[in-house]
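Sequence decides. Consider this:

===
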Amino acid sequence: MSIQWLFDVIESRRQTPSETSYTSSLFAQGLPKIAQKVGEEGTEVVVAALAQDDQRLIEELYADSVKFLERVPRVEPEAIAPIVEFMGKKPIPVETIADNSIVDRLAREGFIEKLFKQR
């Protein structure tokens, strides 16, 4: 199992939700639930690393948690909505706050893929 395979599975669950997919259910519940799950998985990795020298277990826990991460760091409307709401503003387009075109260009040109291959 590779990181690319995990990324492809997650992306397919995001683009084509399945009622039987836990990952799809997390996407349906939104970014706060995904962040909670990532935090839980990250905590497990840290606890395992501190408690043991079992490298295989640590790698397994990391592989389990990385599948919840987005590879391309885009600013999504769901991420800024609570901030905009807190500011007392009406919903506004992401483009007025963040410029995803730079990240999109890096992804198109293969930079992000190369970055992940270096790990």
The chain has seven helices and no strands.
